Amino acid sequence: MFSTVLMLRLQAHGVGVVIIGFFAWVQLLPTFKFLWAPMLDRFDVPGFARFWGKRRGWIMLSQLGIFTAMVAMAFTSSDENLAVTALFAVLLAFWTTTLEVAADAWRIELAPTQAEQGPIAAANLWGYRTAMVAAGSGALLIADHADWTIAYLAIAAAAFLPFPILAAMRPDPGHGGSRWPALAIGVGTSVAILFAAMALAAAVGWVILGTAANMGMSDKTNVTPYVLVICMVPFLIMAAAIPRIRTLPAAHPLRQSAAIGPYVDFFWRYAYGALLLMAFVSVYRMGDVLALNLSKPMIKELGYSLSEIGRADSYVALIASIIGVGLGGWMAARWRWGVTLSIGAVFAALGNFGFVWLAHQSPSEMMLYIATAADQFGNGMAGAIFVVYLSMLVNPRYPGAQYAFLSGFAFLLPRLLSGAGGAMVVRIGYDGFFILSGLVSLGAILFLPLIARIRPRTEKI
To answer: Using 50, 70 and 90 to split pLDDT, how confident is the model at 461?
Structure first.
């Protein structure tokens, strides 16, 4: 939700739709969370973990990271330097993703079965979507009546509130000691980690932007063909590695490695079926991701104000999302996967088609409410179903790393293509773009008869 706020902020400062589309690539960072997810399974945050345990320790560090990134975005809200805007957007995405990795691992450890995952996934998504909807709509309402700096500072303050609540909680079972020394050490360590993350992100960004400039890339470049080629690379790498992986014995160093062992295990268990599973999860949420970043700029161009968009994204989106998430979680816990996944894909597609319908209506806040409700209901339902499905693919031995890998890879292709969304709109218009995104959601249904036959193998004893 907060990525759409950034898109509206950029649009308000005169940034073109193609560049706005490029900013969707900031969301690629969560796709690669599998690169650092094993660290969250293996290492503790000094200080915090001593008293609150591994999972809560990482959550507390991540909350501090989210708060500082939002404050930085508040004081650079003029967007005079888009590279600086991108830097702090990347840091916000990084710490938000790290928070999700820690929370997902904790969730899977607490509820390892499908029957347990349905309710807990729904509860998790309710909380997540409530917070994101409140932050997104709140930022728009404040920005429309004040300015973007105040809007970001207000949301940063709200994002910080869970930290003192966690700090006041009881120690994790098996941990203890003194609360205040643990808190002081944890905060001190966090400051050092936050500065190191910012320096690393700035260095990597400088290299990427310099490389793009040397290649002559700009908002006039048709990046879609390049993106499609890049999208094929992960599948080619996996296809080449599977013949070797499927023959590895349990004691092999690759399967025992703390860094890559969880990922080798996934391909060992599913063999060539892993390719089909990865293709399916890449397509299932693609329509939602493609529509996410450009739906709000389109709505703004239709003549709606930030306040009208903010109101639609508040109670309308929240209620529709809560109903969709609850129904999706209920279905995922009780119905067969083929039926459940199909229903989720259909409603996700209808939400995208709703934007095409909205574009041909006379501007009316009620019409905006209907389109927003359809989008958020379908998004919430498909999201809840998808979370439970991915959780069931995970080996309970590696909950954090494998879920991070699956959920990250699931959005790699969609987010790569989303960055080219602005260029697509220039060529086929908003109508064509949202029709295409809805059809992609429906296309996921074609995979279901095939993935229903895939079963993981187990170690022979």
So the answer is: very low
DSSP 171: P
* CA gap 403, 30 in Å, rounded: 12
Q: In this structure, what are the phi and psi dihedrals at residue 246, rounded to the nearest 5 degrees?
A: -65, -15
Neighbours of 259 (CB within 10 A): 13
Residue (of 281, 232, 271, 305) closest to 411 by Cα position: 281
Encoded tokens for 154? 């207000």
Domains annotated for the chain, with CATH where assigned, are 2-451 (1.20.1250.20)
pLDDT category at 203 given cuts 50, 70, 90 is: very high
Question: What distances in angstroms separate CA 90 from CA 27, 95, 112, 205, 337, one per listed residue?
Answer: 8, 9, 32, 9, 35
Question: What are 47's two structure tokens?
Answer: 């200080």
Concatenate the DSSP letters of all residues of 46-74 into one string.
TTHHHHH-HHHHHHHHHHHHHHHHHHHHH
SS3 label, residue 271? coil
CA–CA dist 461, 457 (Å, integer): 12
**Tokens in use for 121?**
């996934």
Q: Hey, what amino acid is at 115?
A: A
Coil vs helix vs strand at 206: helix
CB atoms within 10 A of CB 237: 10
**50 neighbors 184 (Cβ within 8 angstroms):** no
- Which of 36, 50, 100, 16 is closest to 407 using CA atoms? 100
Largest CA distance in the chain: 67
460 burial (CB, 10 Å; 0-12 / 13-18 / 19+) is exposed
SS (H, E, C) 207-264: HHHHHHHHCCCCCCCCCHHHHHHHHHHHHHHHHHHHHHHCCCCCCCHHHHCCCCHHHH
Q: What are the pLDDT digits (tens) for 27-57? A: 777 767 767 877 887 788 888 888 888 888 8
- Asked whether 306 and 361 are in contact (CB, 8 A), the reply is no
Q: Report pLDDT for 148.
A: 87
pTM of structure: 0.65
Q: What angle do CA 208, 27, 16 make, to 5 degrees?
A: 75
DSSP one-letter code for 172: P
What does the DSSP 8-state code read for residue 461?
Answer: -
Nearest to 56 by CA among 147, 154, 163: 163
Record the tokens describing residue 44, joined without a space.
């503790």
Distance between CA atoms of residues 227 and 411, nearest Å: 14
| CA 293 vs CA 196, 308, 356, 417, 429: distances in Å | 29, 18, 15, 11, 15
CB-based contact 380:325 (threshold 8 Å):
yes
Calpha distance 423→341 (Å, rounded): 30
List the structure tokens of 18.
């193609």
